[in-house]
Amino acid sequence: MLMAIALGLVGCAAPASSVQPEVDKAVVATVPYEFASALTVFDADAGECLTTVVLRPDKYGLSASEAEAAIDLLRESAREMSCSAVLHLVDSDGSQRDISHIAKYLPVEARDGDLIIP
User: Fold this and answer.
1) Nearest to 90, CA basis, from 68, 64, 59, 67
2) Three-class secondary structure of residue 94 per DSSP
3) How crowded is residue 76: how many other Cβ atoms within 10 Å of its Cβ?
4) Collapsing DSSP states into helix, strand and coil, what is residue 99?
5) DSSP result, 25-84
6) Cβ atoms of residues 83 and 47 within 8 Å
7) Under DSSP, is residue 22 helix (H, G, I), strand (E, B) or coil?
């Protein structure tokens, strides 16, 4: 599922529609020089709102200070939608970026390179 979302975001497949387009725009606005786009899908089976954020070309990662405002937005939105927020970061080519190091600095959990935002 994650690959299909990533491929849709980088133009290789029909993009899905976001369950929270305004929040996705706000997430991108938190670090406009780093983030190219964001898309959130709801996985009813897992009870998760998965937000996939695409980095701009030639950007290599994300620091905790850059991620903090985006994480706060996703946490609040997940509360409103009654889901668990998950942040997934990919390169402009769709390759996953491991952002689990952010769990050392902010109140989030790491899972397979993604962040679970309680």
Assistant:
1) 59
2) coil
3) 13
4) coil
5) HHHHHHSTTTEEEEEEEEETTTTEEEEEEEEPTT-----HHHHHHHHHHHHHHHHHHTSE
6) yes
7) helix
Angle between helices 21-30 and 64-81 (to 10 degrees): 170
Note whether 39 and 16 are within 8 A (CB).
Answer: yes
pLDDT in tens, 26-55: 999 999 999 999 999 999 999 999 999 999
Q: How far is it, in rounded angstroms, from Cα 112 to Cα 103? A: 12
pTM over 0.70: yes
Cβ atoms of 19 and 49 closer than 8 Å: yes
For 48: left if phi > 0, alpha if psi spans -120 to 50, otherwise beta; the answer is: beta
